[in-house]
Each structure stands twice: as structure tokens, then as C-alpha cells.
């Protein structure tokens, strides 16, 4: 791992660096800032500004007019609307449950696939390419294709189920099946992503540990739980983090497949925020939905990272 | 510029990810915030201008070729050679269409100049100053040319915001051949329709009896309004301040809609049907009855649609409930023409709108594309009525508008279609759905709640 440039530091105490070097470093740093300034400014304009603006909107009375947004006053009423809204509470519960279930299944499946892929000697590249197809497709298109499968009049799922004698359930028209249908489409699309990340972690694991385990007579099950899994933890943590962030912003699948229905059973926080802002023109409460979602996912991720890092630290 | 909340997939490494998450969630909020205020509608038109270029934002009117929008623009440019109209095609989905317009106009864009917008938009666009009050420029002699009710629907707080461009309403389409075979008459009551549908389905003549729009979206509100109106009910009181939907009429409407599904008259899949699904079930010969808009007739009678029931389709007003007047109520749909308050050429916009709502354009729309004209004289002309049996049915229907006179209408409609859809899916009872809808509507019109 440590193939850094400062090999001298290991053998003897480092001599005080010459001042010339110091000045040069500072100059380099300035140059570095200079080079990155344009992109930093751009990021500031398209990232920091919208974030701040959303936070401000969520704390103001916002009126959208023909000549832009009119913000007035500082108020917590947008957030109080959320807390008192059954719709928001439902959307929050739905989004959290959806995220937990899909990410858990994706991580298990993805890890299994990665373990298989790692052992493949022939055609691993082809398999990976095949696996990446669902991941690389645009979600809206994925969703439309799933819409054909789930279609209650000519969909293939309907046909299979009725041939199996399971009747013709209206998958997207009944709450629980609709939620499961969205989860299946999501898992289908993103499991390969988890698999590829985990595979990248797998191939980097030190081989000598496995040899030692083999010498000690450990079986495959034991080797996985004692060696592979603990060493893979940081990689899996990364995969989980990516997936949680995406799953929490669930929008395209319900937008295409169910429009948040039946009833409001697949209304995620992002769908709710979109409707609040762009259908109802309630930009204050809509900004509150977006801001609170971001804060919640931020807290969730920080806690998750903390817990995981602590565990990784203990084992190291 | 059209600002839509696009979502990005993929990302960077480690903790930065967390920051990115915040961004992606928050950019949604900031979409369309690039507000540069322009001097809205300050240009004073001097009656009519006859030069310049204007951009017309319109979603596809029909799927036929030639495109009616292009046909109309060409005809307009022949009469007004110095005004050039550039068509900007808008999204098909009404909600996406509206979201794009709101961000564009509130962002201060001077383009599009004229936009074709839904009949349910005047209150919302008027309340947020996203459209020019046309009554400031056009005199009452102009407004009196339209069929009754249309101008009222385009009015908010005494100002008229949209010029009625073409109208639409719900119709009952039926299979003439099947009714003849079974010696049935065209159903006059909903109960009759239900039992006929069940009978035709049980005899194996069709896969589904009656198809309509039951998905959780605006179209379900339209369908519900028709049953509710036929039962003599309403959604809001006349002051638009209180929900009146939780009533015996509401119960009757909702019980009947649910019974269509439970009796097998309508497939349970109807809870996911929007217009295209219902239309294709009917056009492929799978259904005996269809509730759809004006275009249903020409669609079903055009082999290339594709339709397998060409020549076998009849049209009638929607049925009513026994003890209530026949026909039942048809919901009003259709499109108006609006002007962007930032338009730099309001005079040319007005010239364009006046022509599009004049006899020439309205006749083209009615005779070539079988849309229902908004202008009374065109609507009742022999030449127009002869072209399309749908247009001959129009004078016999009874219309009911959606409660779109309140700027909170989108929330009112959501409260309706989400709860009605739950009932259709069997996940809530009509009684509890009506009370939930009623509460949501009350909090919507009082300006509280999401």
C-alpha cells in the first residue's frame, strides 16, 4: 500500500526541509488554487448557491409570480406544515422502508455475484459487461420497460401469473404489489453496481491471508466470515453509502410507473417534493421537503460512516 | 430555457458523496430559481400588430399527420405574412407541461409568447401572474363569440386569462355491432351500462365490459366529476371555501365506481388505466364500452390508429343515474391560449390568438381534426356537424366543470384522484375515502397543508 515518495522518512529522522522547498510548495499551492479556481467557482455557482437558496426558501414565505420568486419573512411554518402532514409522514416512512429493503437485498445479491465473478476465470469481462447493461440504462427507460412487463392487460407478468393459475393481480394498481414491483425494478437495475464495487474490493484482498487460512484448515464458510467479509467491510460500506443516497432520492421509477399511486402508496419524498413545488406551486413547503430530505440523508450517512469506521478501526 | 428537475445517477468518492446527496436533493428545490425579473406585460399593444416573430408553445393536439399545429400556423401565416410563428412542441403530459411553463415564465423568459394551456389553469396562472389577463385587451364583443360556459371557465377574479381554443368533454363510445347482436339499446343509465357490460363480457363477446380512466392522476378526477355530477353532487361549495364532496351524492358516485370493478363490468386493471390504455383496449376490440374524450371516435374509426373496430363504433352522451336527468354530466376538458407576461410582442400575440379562435381556424380544427370548436357559430354550422357524429352529439350533452376556479385546484384534484383510486383498488372504503378527501380539500382551500 505505502508506495509513497518519501522513502527516506522510514530509515532516519527527516532533516528539516530547506526553506527553498517550502516556498516552492507554497507557490505550487497557489498555482493549484489558481488552476482549480474556475471549477470551484462553477461548483459554487451551481451547487452551493442552489443549496443555500433552497434552505432560505424553506424558511420563508415563497410566492411564485411571473417575475420570479418573492420571498418574505423568516418562518418555520413550512416545516411545521410537513410535520403535521400525513402525506409527508407517509412519504418519509415509505422512502426509509424502501431504501432499507432495497439496499439490503442489493448488497447481499451484489456480494454473492461478486464472489462468483471473482472465481470466474473465463469470460469475466463479458459477464461484467452484461451485468452493467441494466445499470448503464437510463432509469426512465428501464421504468418504461418494466411498465410493459407489469401492464395489466398485455404485460408478460400478467400472462405468466394467469398461466400459473395465480389469477391476474393488477400489480401497479394495488398498493403492496406496486411497492414490491418498484423494488424489483430498482434491485434489477442497481445490484450490478454493488457487485462491481464489491468485486473491485475483492480482487485487492491480500492473497496470503487465504493461503494461511487454507493451511489452518478453515472451510470456505469460515474463510468468508473471518477473512473476506471483515476485509470487505470498507468496500461494502462505500457501496451501501452510494446506494442509500440514490435510493433515498427515489423519483424516476414511481414517476413513470405509478405517479405515486395507487392512492399515495408509492409517493416518495422526492415525488412529494416535486408535486408540492411544480404542481401546487408551493415552493416554500416544497423546499422544506427537499431540505429536510437532504438533512435526514446526511445525518443517516454520517451515523452510518461513524459506526462502520469504528468497527473497521477495531479490527485493524 | 426549460428547467426540469433532472436526477443524476452516479457519483464521486467517500464523504464528498454526502455533500453531493444534499446537492441533488436541494437542486430540486432550486430549479427555476434563476429568476431575473422582467418588466411583465408592459408593452402596450395598439390593437393589432402585423409583424414580428412569435413562439407558440403547444403540446401535440392529435397524433395524426399532418400536424394540426403546423396546418394552423401555415394558414395563419398566409393571412398575416409578416408575422412568423415558430412552434415549440410542449410535453404531452399536462403536469410536465405546466411545470416547464411555470419555471420558464417565473424565470423571466420572454419565450414562448403564446402558450396552449389546459382549461383548468386560469385560476392558478392568474393568481401567480403567470399569464396576461386577456380581458384587458380584448373587448366583450370578442368574448361573446364563444359557446356558453367556456369564457366563465377561463375567468379568475373578474379577469379572463385564456382564449378558448378547442373544447373537449367525456363521451360514451359503444360497439354498435355487439349491441345489435344482443338486441340492446344504448344505455341511458349507469346501472344499465353496468349490466350490459357484464352480460357482454360473460357471453365471451369481449374481454372487458366497460373501460375508462381510473389511474391515480388528473383524468380520474374528470371521470369522478361525471359520476358525481350525474348523482347531483359537487366538490366545493359555491364560495369555493368548503368541501361538499362528502355527501350522499359522493357516496353514490363512489359506490357505483367501485361496483363497476367488483361486478366485473370493468377490469380491475382499470385502476391503472389512463386514456391510452382505455383507448387501446377498446380499439383492439377487447371492450364493449369506453368513456373517452372527443378524439375517441376518430381514433376508433381509423384503421391505422391501429383500430380493429372501424365502422362498429357509436357515440352517445354519458348515462345518468335513475331519478336524475338524462344524460349524465360530461366533464369539460380542452385547451385555451394564454400570453406569457414577458412576451415582447403582445400585439402580434393577440393577432395570433384572435385568428386561432376565429371562424377559419376553428373550422379547420373541427372539420380536418374533429376537435370541438369553441366558437358558437362554427360549432352549430351544418358543414361541421355533418363531418363527425361526435360534434352532432355535443349539443345533447350536459357539462360539468372541474372545481378549477380556485388556485388550489391541483391539491383539490390530488385529494380526489388519490382517494378515489384507493377505493377502486379496494384499499379504502368509499366512506373513509370521502372523509379523507374532504379533509384534504378543506385544508387545501384554506391554504394550509401540503
Characterization of this structure:
With 316 residues, chain A is mostly helical. Chain A folds into two domains: 14-72, no CATH class; 79-315, MetI-like fold, CATH 1.10.3720. Chain A has 13 helices and two strands. Chain A has helices at 8-11, 19-58, 77-83, 86-119, 124-136, 139-150, 156-163, 175-203, 207-215, 220-248, 252-257, 269-279, 283-315; strands at 61-65, 68-72. Chain A has a two-stranded antiparallel ribbon. The model of chain A is unreliable at 1-10 (pLDDT under 50). Chain B is of the alpha/beta class and 450 residues long. Chain B folds into two domains: 52-168 and 333-400, Periplasmic binding protein-like II (D-Maltodextrin-Binding Protein, domain 2, 3-Layer(aba) Sandwich), CATH 3.40.190.10; 169-331 and 404-445, Periplasmic binding protein-like II (D-Maltodextrin-Binding Protein, domain 2), CATH 3.40.190. Chain B contains 19 helices and 13 strands. In chain B, the strands form three sheets. In chain B, strands 1, 2, 3, 6, 11, 12 and 13 form a seven-stranded mixed β-sheet that branches. In chain B, strands 8-9-7-10 form a four-stranded mixed β-sheet, sandwiched between helices. Chain B is globular and about 65 Å long. The two termini of chain B are 28 Å apart. Classes of the chains: A mainly alpha (316), B alpha/beta (450).
Q: How is this structure best summarized?
A:
The complex is a heterodimer of chains A (about 325) and B (about 450). By secondary structure, chain A is mainly α.
- On the 0-100 scale, what is the average pLDDT of chain A? 86
Measure the end-to-end span of chain A.
15 Å
Q: Order of strands in the sheet with the most strands of chain A?
A: 1-2
Q: What is the CATH C level class of the largest domain in chain A, in words?
A: Mainly Alpha
How do the helices and strands line up, and which of them pair or pack?
The complex is a heterodimer of chains A (316) and B (450).
Chain A: H1 8-11, H2 19-58, E1 61-65, E2 68-72, H3 77-83, H4 86-119, H5 124-136, H6 139-150, H7 156-163, H8 175-203, H9 207-215, H10 220-248, H11 252-257, H12 269-279, H13 283-315
Antiparallel strand pairs in A: 1-2
Helix pairs in contact in A: 2-13, 3-13, 4-8, 4-10, 5-8, 8-10, 10-13, 12-13
Chain B: H1 16-30, E1 52-58, H2 68-79, E2 83-89, H3 94-106, E3 114-118, H4 122-127, H5 140-143, H6 150-153, E4 155-156, E5 159-160, E6 163-169, E7 171-175, H7 176-181, H8 190-202, E8 208-211, H9 218-230, H10 248-262, H11 275-283, E9 287-292, H12 295-300, E10 313-316, E11 329-339, H13 346-356, H14 359-369, E12 372-373, H15 376-379, H16 382-387, H17 389-393, E13 398-400, H18 409-424, H19 430-445
Parallel strand pairs in B: 1-2, 1-3, 8-9, 11-13
Antiparallel strand pairs in B: 3-11, 4-5, 6-11, 6-12, 7-9, 7-10
Amino acid at each position: 500500500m505505502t508506495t509513497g515518495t518519501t522513502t527516506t522518512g522510514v530509515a532516519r529522522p527527516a532533516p528539516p526541509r530547506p526553506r527553498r522547498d517550502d516556498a516552492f510548495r507554497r507557490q505550487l499551492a497557489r498555482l493549484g488554487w489558481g488552476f482549480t479556481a474556475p471549477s470551484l467557482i462553477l461548483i459554487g455557482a451551481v451547487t452551493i448557491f442552489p443549496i443555500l437558496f433552497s434552505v432560505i426558501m424553506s424558511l420563508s414565505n415563497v410566492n411564485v409570480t411571473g417575475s420570479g420568486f418573492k420571498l418574505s419573512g423568516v418562518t418555520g411554518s413550512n416545516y411545521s406544515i410537513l410535520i403535521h402532514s400525513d402525506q409527508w409522514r407517509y412519504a418519509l416512512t415509505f422512502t426509509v422502508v424502501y431504501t432499507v429493503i432495497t439496499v439490503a437485498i442489493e448488497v447481499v445479491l451484489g456480494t454473492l455475484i461478486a464472489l462468483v465473478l471473482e472465481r470466474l476465470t473465463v469470460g469475466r469481462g463479458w459477464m461484467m459487461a452484461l451485468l452493467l447493461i441494466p445499470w448503464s440504462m437510463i432509469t426512465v427507460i428501464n421504468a418504461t420497460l418494466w411498465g410493459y412487463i407489469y401492464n395489466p392487460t398485455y404485460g408478460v407478468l400478467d400472462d405468466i401469473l394467469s398461466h400459473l393459475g395465480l389469477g391476474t393481480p393488477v400489480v401497479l394498481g394495488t398498493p403492496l404489489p406496486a411497492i414490491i414491483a418498484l423494488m424489483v425494478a430498482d434491485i434489477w437495475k442497481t445490484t450490478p453496481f454493488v457487485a462491481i464495487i464489491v468485486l473491485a474490493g475483492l480482487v485487492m484482498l491480500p492473497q496470503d491471508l487465504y493461503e494461511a487460512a487454507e493451511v489452518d484448515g478453515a472451510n470456505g464458510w469460515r474463510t468468508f466470515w473471518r477473512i473476506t467479509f471483515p476485509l470487505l467491510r470498507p468496500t461494502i460500506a462505500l457501496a451501501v453509502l452510494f446506494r442509500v443516497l440514490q435510493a433515498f432520492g427515489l423519483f424516476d421509477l414511481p414517476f413513470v410507473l405509478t405517479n405515486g399511486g395507487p392512492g399515495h402508496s408509492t409517493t416518495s419524498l422526492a415525488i412529494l417534493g416535486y408535486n408540492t413545488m411544480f404542481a401546487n406551486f408551493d415552493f416554500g413547503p416544497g423546499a422544506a421537503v427537499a431540505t429536510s430530505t437532504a438533512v435526514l440523508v446526511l445525518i443517516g450517512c454520517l451515523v452510518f460512516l461513524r459506526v462502520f469506521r469504528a468497527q473497521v478501526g477495531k479490527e485493524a | 430555457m426549460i428547467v426540469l428537475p433532472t436526477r443524476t445517477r452516479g457519483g464521486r468518492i467517500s464523504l464528498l458523496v454526502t455533500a453531493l446527496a444534499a446537492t441533488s436533493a436541494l437542486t430540486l428545490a432550486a430549479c427555476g430559481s434563476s429568476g431575473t425579473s422582467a418588466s411583465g406585460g408592459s408593452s402596450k399593444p395598439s390593437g393589432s400588430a402585423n409583424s414580428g416573430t412569435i413562439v407558440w408553445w403547444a403540446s401535440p393536439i392529435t397524433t395524426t399527420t399532418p400536424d394540426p399545429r403546423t396546418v394552423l400556423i401555415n394558414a395563419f401565416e398566409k393571412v398575416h405574412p409578416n408575422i412568423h410563428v415558430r412552434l415549440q412542441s410542449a410535453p404531452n403530459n399536462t403536469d410536465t407541461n405546466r411545470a416547464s411553463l411555470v419555471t420558464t415564465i417565473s424565470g423571466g423568459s420572454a419565450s414562448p409568447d403564446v402558450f396552449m394551456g389546459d382549461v383548468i389553469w386560469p385560476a392558478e396562472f392568474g393568481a401567480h401572474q403567470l399569464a396576461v389577463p386577456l380581458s384587458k385587451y380584448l373587448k366583450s364583443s370578442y368574448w361573446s363569440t364563444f359557446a356558453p360556459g367556456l369564457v366563465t371557465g377561463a375567468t379568475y377574479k373578474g379577469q379572463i386569462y385564456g382564449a378558448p381554443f378547442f373544447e373537449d368533454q367525456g363521451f360514451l363510445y359503444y360497439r354498435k355491432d355487439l349491441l345489435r347482436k344482443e338486441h340492446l339499446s344504448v344505455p341511458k343509465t349507469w346501472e344499465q351500462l353496468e349490466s350490459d357490460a357484464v352480460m357482454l363480457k360473460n357471453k365471451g363477446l369481449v374481454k372487458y365490459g366497460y373501460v375508462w380512466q381510473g389511474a391515480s392522476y388528473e383524468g380520474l378526477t374528470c371521470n369522478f366529476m361525471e359520476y358525481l355530477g350525474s348523482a347531483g353532487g359537487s366538490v366545493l361549495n359555491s364560495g369555493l371555501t368548503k368541501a361538499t364532496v362528502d355527501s350522499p351524492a359522493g357516496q353514490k358516485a363512489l359506490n357505483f365506481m367501485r361496483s363497476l370493478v367488483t361486478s366485473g363490468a370493468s377490469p380491475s386493471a382499470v385502476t391503472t388505466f389512463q386514456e391510452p390504455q382505455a383507448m387501446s383496449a377498446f380499439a383492439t376490440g377487447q371492450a364493449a364500452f369506453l368513456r373517452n374524450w372527443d378524439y375517441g371516435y376518430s381514433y376508433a374509426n381509423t384503421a391505422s390508429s391501429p383500430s380493429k373496430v372501424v365502422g362498429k363504433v357509436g357515440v352517445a352522451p354519458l348515462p345518468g343515474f335513475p331519478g336524475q336527468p338524462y344524460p349524465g354530466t360530461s366533464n369539460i376538458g380542452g385547451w385555451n391560449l394564454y400570453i406569457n407576461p414577458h412576451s415582447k410582442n403582445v400585439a402580434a400575440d393577440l393577432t395570433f390568438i384572435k385568428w386561432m379562435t376565429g371562424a377559419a381556424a376553428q373550422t379547420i380544427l373541427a372539420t380536418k381534426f374533429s376537435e370541438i370548436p369553441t366558437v358558437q357559430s362554427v360549432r352549430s354550422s351544418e358543414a361541421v356537424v355533418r363531418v363527425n357524429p361526435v360534434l352532432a352529439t355535443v349539443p345533447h350533452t350536459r357539462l360539468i366543470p372541474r372545481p378549477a376556479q380556485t388556485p388550489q385546484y391541483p391539491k383539490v384534484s390530488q385529494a380526489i384522484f388519490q382517494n378515489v383510486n384507493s377505493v377502486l383498488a379496494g384499499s379504502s372504503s368509499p366512506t373513509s375515502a370521502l372523509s379523507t378527501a374532504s379533509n384534504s380539500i378543506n385544508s387545501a382551500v384554506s391554504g394550509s397543508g401540503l
